[in-house]
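Hi there. Long-time user, first ticket. I'm pasting a complex I've been working with (about 726 residues overall). I'd like to know whether the download I got is complete or cut off, because the file seemed smaller than I expected. Thanks.
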Amino acid sequence: MTRQAWRFGRRGGLLLLVLLVAACALLIGRGVAPIAWAADPTVHYISHRFPMLEFWVKKMGEYPGIKLEAELIPFDQALEKMQIHLSQGASTYDIMATDAFLPTFAQRGWLMPLDPLIAKLRQAVEWDDIDPVLVRDVCSYKGKVYGVPNLAISMFFFYRQDLLDAAGLKPPATMDEWIAAAKALTAADKKQYGTAMTLKAGDGFQNDFTYFLRTYGGDWYDKDWKVTIDSEAGVKALTTMKELMKYAPPNVLAFHNDESTVAMQQGLTAMGLLWQSRALAMDNAQVSKVVGKVSFAVPPAATKGGKSRARLAVGCYSISAFTKNDPELLFQVIGKTLSKVNMRESAGLATPTRLSVTKDPEVTQKFRFIRAAADNVQAGARLVPSNPEFSEAMLQTTQTLQKGLTGELTIPDALKRAQKVMSDLMTEKGYYKK
Amino acid sequence: MASRQQRRDRLIFLVPSMTVLTVLLVYPLAYSLGLSFYNYYLPVPRTTFVGFDNFRFILGDDAFWEALGVTARFTGAAVAIEVVLGIAVALLLDARIPCRRFVNTVVLLPMAITPAVAGLLMRWMFESNWGLVNYFLGLVGVRGPGWTGDPAWALWSIIFADVWQNTPFVILVIYAGLQSVPVEPLEAAMVDGASRAQTLAHVVFPFLRPLILFVLIIRSMDAFRIFDQVFVMTGGGPGTTTQTITFYNYVMAFRQLRMGRASALGVITLLILSLVIGAWIYLLYRREKGEW
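Hi, the file is complete. Here it is re-exported in full:
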């Protein structure tokens, strides 16, 4: 074939040029205004992933007249993506799942105050049915509402009823009983470990540590926001965690909620602290080998008759301050997603946030977890501190605390260093005089 | 001597590449350097000039020195294993083994996988309860450790992943070098009665030395900047036992959102890396000057 033969003729060349220009224009047009010709507005959603949130996303996608683009990814990655986009004032996300970090985002001006929307659409979304305590304590910041509560969960003590019965043990009521039972139920050669733990640095470690710290009578801060983890309670908390680690799967320091759940479902662990939202998955025969064998109790106290202070978490749906969609539409999407009907359907996955559903005896009878969650709150389950700096310091602090468990640092040194990390941040943010 | 016209032409031809370099390399570097002198906290748009405060903070930060130690241990171990193993496999492939072409192809496969995917693959292989590694160890009666969750083994898991992925690069370069060793000196050595080991040490290796230095430079640079496998396999943990400099930089920039400090750390990393590479290049020049 000669060079001339396969060359484009003038017409062919012109046609190719036109096609190229048209393709470029189309791509640029799509990039600049992706919904220019779409009939329905696109709502961008981001959250971490667990069954309850997956359920809400499914329901959100059913809202008429919108196209939902949802991103459900692990907690730390979702938080990271939200922070990067919002800090640049980007309108990437419209609806976001927020929780303990809501005050941080609200303080930075990243969330839209919902009060005007509530005033306007109170009837349409049946706002007065939503638990006002959750709205006030978790989804608000400095008197303004920044989120709609979508779920409430606490950490339960999951245990294998069959294994405990076979060993003649009762669910542990104290830390010492927990350690003893974990030791008795560990048979590493049979791949059975006495306890599950969630110790990956970040929010996973924080959840477990908060429970141990508070149950031993300590806390992250005192009433003046002075950091107080370098305390006797802190030492007891890390010492107990280190002791329990001996009876946990060997790579437990890399376990987040998913790994702890799978370990329980696959019969690898006999008991441990897990979120209420993971309870239903134990009885799912498709993914669980322990269907009907797992029971729930209030987590152990420090001593007999003492308080058990597991983590309580409330999730909210918030609207980005930088959204380009109609806020009223977004608020209605959230409101309809969290309708009474949907919440009744989801009641097995987490504690509902509508009063009409939580007070419905039919629902509480059907889903045993709701009763157990109420017992948990009664026993002393509490939320994490509400200051914006708490979530900011979480990763570095928990990495440092983890070193107390790995032996890189002694437990007192790990607590001292973690306390310094948090105190330095609080000083920098103006909580104390330098 | 080039005429004025030629010099002008050269400049014109340099413009496109210099533009690309300026946009993609010089500007980001200068921007990052500038940023390192500011207190730039991403959620707060206001920045303040802080001079060398960010550098002082990092150099006084225990986490930085720990990360530097982890990076040095990782780089030293991974590169040493890769070079030794790579040379050994290249020599094996150079010998007349059966199915050589097939083996060549299989050996090079890991290079075609992206580091993040390779990391994910390794994460599951090193999973202590259901992973392949512990399964095979179990078959020979050995109970494997917790690998990525065990402070004593986590870094070794990542080293293994890196060795698996990057040894093929060493093999490729050394194997190509072996193909270009001239026949005459080999024949002369044979005639003189040199043993195989002597031929290898005194004839083959002198030819390979520049290539070994080349792979050492490239692999050291790459290993020093490791991120993907750490991110996917351990997330820097347990504790900070696998937190390398690059991962620490990522945490500072994208989790703590301290862009000023992260830029300063980037500049410090660049300086350290430049020193290491400078030392390697100095060695290369010595070679070119015929000093060894």
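A couple of notes from our side: The radius of gyration of chain B is 24 Å. The interface with chain A takes residues 42-44, 62-63, 127-130, 143, 145-151, 234-241, 243, 251, 254-257 of chain B (CB under 8 Å).
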